[in-house]
Amino acid sequence: MNAAETLTVDQVIDTTRYPLSDPTGGAWQDVVSHARAELRLHGCCVLPDFVRPSLRDEMCREGAEIAPLAHYDVEVVNAYNIATDTPLPDGHPGRTTMERGNAFVARDRIPAHFVIHRLYTSELFQRFVADCFELPRVHELADPLAGLCLNVIRPGLAHPWHFDTNEYTVSMLTRQSRGGVFEYCPNIRSAHDENFADVRTVLAGEGERLVRGLSLRPGDLQLFKGRYALHRVTTVRGDTARHSAIFAYSERPGVIGSVERTRQLFGRVLPAHLGEGRAVRGDHLLD
């Protein structure tokens, strides 16, 4: 571990609660063991107050600075992020449509000195994330837009039910709002079973038994298996937008988003998205 890594960890992370400066120590292993147990049981783990209290206001200010750069495009979507006119049989949950009102600030518009950028690129933080997800390592996405982004949900809007493209999702609330509750259905599907019946029940508003809610605060680190858990952020109320940082990693290097999905999220594509040889997912789920 080099001096720059130590500085990033010590300055950003509350190392009293999360002693990440020593990846071979017992305290590191205690935190990792807790995270693994939560992820196995619920597909989600929240590490409260992960970022130092003194930096939470700074993260909020930084998010507010770049939030106007977010790509806004309120549109009709389904839970699988596929075209809403895709031919599907009657009763298929992909035929249920919702309005998506969240927006994203792309990585190339997030300055390197911002707290969330320093955390995302920290090799020690990446090692910690990989340990928690029981992976040998994780890689930053090669995608110049989607690797790190700020998710912005304005008052009156929501991020409706959906599945993530990545199996492993790491995020952090940077600005709280009224409403905007994170809800999810743990392990509602697997790599081998779409479980359309339960997904359809949740989308119909009849699946309360399958839904869990989280009370997140700025600075909490959320580790989440979002590819297998249907999830959403409920409508934001009041006058304050909800901001959260999305740290996107992959088990394999070289992952770049598809042209269609990239344009949907960011309103633009770059030459990297048009190239050949992008790494692809290892399952055959609908999205």
Task: Explain what this protein looks like in three dimensions.
The protein has about 290 residues and is of the alpha+beta class. The protein has one domain: q2cbj1_9rhob like domain (Jelly Rolls, Sandwich). About 25% of the residues lie in helices and about 20% in strands. It has seven helices and 15 strands. It has helices at about 5-10, 25-40, 55-65, 115-120, 125-130, 195-205, 260-265; strands at about 45, 75, 100, 100-105, 140, 150-155, 160, 170-175, 180, 180-185, 210-215, 220-225, 230-235, 235, 240-250. It is globular, with a radius of gyration of 18 Å. It starts with a helix and ends in a 21-residue tail after the last helix.
Q: In angstroms, what is the radius of gyration?
A: 18 Å
* Top-tier CATH class: Mainly Beta
State the helicity in percent bands: 25-40%
Number of DSSP E strands: 15
Give the topology, please.
Blueprint: H1 3-12, H2 26-42, E1 44-47, H3 53-66, E2 75-77, E3 98-100, E4 102-105, H4 115-121, H5 123-132, E5 139-140, E6 148-153, E7 159-162, E8 169-175, E9 178-179, E10 182-185, H6 196-203, E11 212-214, E12 221-224, E13 230-233, E14 236-237, E15 242-250, H7 259-266
Antiparallel strand pairs: 1-12, 2-3, 4-6, 5-15, 6-15, 7-13, 8-12, 8-15, 9-14, 10-11, 10-13
